[in-house]
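Hi W., the fe (ii) ion complex you wanted:
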Amino acid sequence: MKRVTLNEIFNHPITQKYLQRSGIHHAVSTAEQSVTLAEQQGVDLDLAAKSALLHDIGHYEWYKDGKWDYEEYRKHDIHAIKGAERSHKLLIRLGENKERAKTISIAILLHTDSYLPFSIESMRTPLHDVVFRADEMEELPGGAHHYVEMDTGEANERLARLEERILQNQDPKRSIS
Ligand SMILES: [Fe+2]
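Structure:
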């Protein structure tokens, strides 16, 4: 089965449409951070990068009078659920291995528990923990991390470099969880 690259995922129209809402900069930086943590933790680098790149793809636009409405967002947000579904559809369409597509989709579903009525902190797998912590490290006060800009050219260059790093450092024997 062919390898689906980070650049292929990023340049797909579904990603381009939905990733703009939560910000390309946040997605790319979280993917880089996630690979760094995965290297330290012995987690599969490819899964960590793809899960982090797509973790916020489920965001809805919570705008009211031109501004992000955080109260509405906190009450009604299900971006992790939508992101899990959207990313799964996208990955399968691109030809990703089905087992890996499911693993990535679940990591996106569980990258936060802010939308759940209970905490999942003690139940995270090493992959879930890596994506959760990378996201947290990239967070800025007031959700400002969603507004830092990055053009498509820079995003593609950084993702190509990250892809190289994954190919060089990936240990094929590492677990996928
Ligand atoms: Fe995020």
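The domain at 6-169 is CATH 1.10.3210 (Hypothetical protein af1432).

W.
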